[in-house]
Amino acid sequence: MPPVADLPARSYAVLGLLAIRDWTTYELARQMERGVGDIWAAARSMIYQEPKRLAALGLAYAHAETVGRRKRTRYGITPAGLALLRRWLAEPGAPPAMQFEGLLKILLADPAQPAAIYASLAEAIKWADGLQDVGRVVAAEYASGRGPFQERAHLVALSFAFLWDYAEFVRRWAAWAQDEAATWSGDHPGSEVFRQALAGRPISS
Q: Please, what is the Cα angle at 63 between 62 and 69, to 5 degrees?
């Protein structure tokens, strides 16, 4: 069994899903897009390859099944995989690490062309709206007792609350940033923002 530190987080994301039930690679990719992918992004191509890699390590197993005339492979977790997953889950998780390209573009924007940031701000609002649209569907399923993993509803709820509030914050921040950028003038635009932050007052509320 490989040490916990030898596997990337996406491996444990897949092991965690396999611990819930057996999946085909297509089903895994869809589930990553529906839920886990909002917390831990991974390329679809990696998700298709990961179960095969875990099986080669003895952490997952594969079994073939036939649906009509079509054959497909379904993956599950082995006892060794479950033991490793439990060891990983028992360790404290790393703090958040951001990859927000829109914010990076704003930070590096040309000061002489401040209007260029508006596209990134609009896209941030669109992302927040989309995440909450999906969240409403998920919340309605679990609230009515029809969630795909209803026995895990209390765990899903904690993750849901974070993602919902995160989307709400991003939307509020982007709308505030649009209004703030519209007021820029003079030699030191944005100075008031620093003063508010240093005084401990909310900025984008």
A: 130
Task: Answer for the pair 88, 12: CB distance below 8 angstroms, yes or no.
Answer: yes
CA 44, CA 67: separation in Å to the nearest integer?
Answer: 23
d(CA 203, CA 205): 6
Higher pLDDT, 188 or 29: 29
Dmax over Cα atoms in the chain, in whole Å? Answer: 71
140-174 pLDDT, tens digit each: 999 999 988 899 999 999 999 999 999 999 999 99
Residues near 64 by beta carbon (within 8 Å), at least 6 away in sequence: 71, 72, 73, 74
Q: Provide the pLDDT confidence category of residue 87 given band limits of 50, 70 and 90.
A: very high
Nearest partner of 50 among 72, 23, 70, 71, judged by Cα: 23
